[in-house]
Amino acid sequence: MTDCEKLGNCDESRLERIYEYLDGELSPADLAEVKAHLDSCQDCASQHDLECVIRSVVKRSCEEQAPSSLKDRILQRLGADT
């Protein structure tokens, strides 16, 4: 039984380790430890998967550009207010 299963949920430090894992901030030993935990703990694996989806959506949103017609309309409205 994992720590998370014993507690019923993950504590803040466990979640922080998942973020560090996703950010590539862990040493090889820590990386292996977190990977092994994710493989054995459904709660943490679910949190990991959710964070991956959120990061993907944010990344995609940051890469999309507004149509130039929208930019023009916004600039026109901003200019009309001054």
Task: Provide keyphrases for this structure.
82 residues, mainly alpha, Arc Repressor Mutant, subunit A, 79% helix
The structural domain count equals: 1
- The count of DSSP E runs of length 2 or more, i.e. the number of strands, is 0
Low-confidence stretches: none
What percentage of the residues does DSSP assign to strands (E)? under 5%
Q: Could you please describe the fold and organization of this structure?
A:
With 82 residues, the protein is an all-alpha fold. It is 79% helix and 0% strand.
Question: How would you briefly describe this protein structure?
Answer:
Helices cover 79% and strands 0% of the residues.
What topology does this entry show?
Blueprint: H1 3-7, H2 12-23, H3 28-40, H4 42-63, H5 68-80
Helix pairs in contact: 2-4, 3-4
